[in-house]
Each structure stands twice: as C-alpha cells, then as structure tokens.
Amino acid sequence: MEIERKFLVKDLPDRLAEYSFREIEQGYLNTDPVVRVRKDGDSYYLTYKGKGLLAREEYNLPLDQASYEHLIAKADGIVLTKRRYQIPFSQGREYTIELDIFRGIYDGLILAEVEFESEEEARNFTPPQWFGRDVTFSGEFQNSRLSQGKTQI
Fold this sequence. Notes:
There is one protein chain. 12% of the residues lie in helices and 47% in strands. By secondary structure, the protein is mainly beta. Strands 1, 2, 3, 4, 5, 6, 7, 8, 9 and 10 form a 10-stranded antiparallel beta sheet that branches. It is built from 3 helices and 10 strands; from the N terminus they run ββββββαβββαβα. Strand 3 (34-40) and strand 4 form a beta hairpin. The chain starts with a strand and ends in a 7-residue tail after the last helix.
C-alpha cells in the first residue's frame, strides 16, 4: 500500500545541490488501472497502481533493460522525464521528500511527494515552507494524468 501526499513546489530548498538525485524516465501502458514502466537510474520496473489519491495499492516488478525498452516503445501518451532528489526532513519522525524536477514537455514543473505509514499520519503532516499547494486530492498532477497531456502548468 502506498500512502503519500503530493505538493507543487513554490521555491527550491536551500542547498539542493548537496542532495543526491536520480534520472527517471517513465511511460504508461495503461492509466485505468495504472500500469507503468520506469527506468530509474540503472534499474527498470513495471508497476501496477490501484485506484486512489492518498492511498492505493502499488506493486513493482523488476525488468531488465531489453524488456523495458520493448515496453516503453508501447507507452500511451507522453513519456515523462524528471530528476528526482531525495531530501531528508524531520518532523517528529524522519521523512524523505522526493523532489521531482520535470524535463521535456513539462519543463519547469516541480513536485514533491512524501510517503507515510498511515493515512492519519499523512493527514497530520505539516509541509515545509518551501512547498506550495497540496495537490494530493485533485489528481491533476498524478504522473499518469500528466502522461496523457491533461494537466496545464
């Protein structure tokens, strides 16, 4: 089960260059239900995601490079590319903020996601000052929706 909140980012955090990042490319074979293929650095995955905005099922299956390349060619819509930073954040417990800076058609879009152990914990989370609008429940910035060109930035 994946439980996460998603935010637009209004300002980049201080010392961004100090944090590690990975290059990600992903495409969608289906958006209802979500079936995604992703290249994350040197790793490749096929992911199934159930319905939901705050909480939903998620299953990741490893792929090899050849399988990924075969499937990404079949992606429906826009293949998304982004740089993902891992930023530690403490608020009573330790979190990792996944900061995505998009490239390509969505160049300039910056989103932050934070994962939680429970829905209650997610609802009680207070984001850092540099976060912008909470878009968790709108669905407009879900990557599967971005891949369909249905979101204006």
